[in-house]
Amino acid sequence: AVSQLDGSEFQGRQLRVNIATKRN
Asked: How far is the C-alpha of 19 from the C-alpha of 14, rounded, in Å?
């Protein structure tokens, strides 16, 4: 469960970074 939660948070963070890079 902890691993899954970590993965979800990591994916969300990467998504945000991807959006920021796209905007840039």
From this structure: 9
Give, in order, the Cα–Cα distances in Å from 20 to each of 1, 3, 5, 9, 14: 29, 26, 23, 17, 10
Residue 22: predicted pLDDT: 84
Spatial separation of the C-alpha atoms in residues 7 and 22, rounded to whole Å = 22
Q: What is the pLDDT of residues 1-24, one digit of tens each?
A: 466 666 778 788 888 888 888 876
Residue position matching structure tokens 């963070």: 13
The whole-angstrom separation of Cα 15 and Cα 1 is: 21
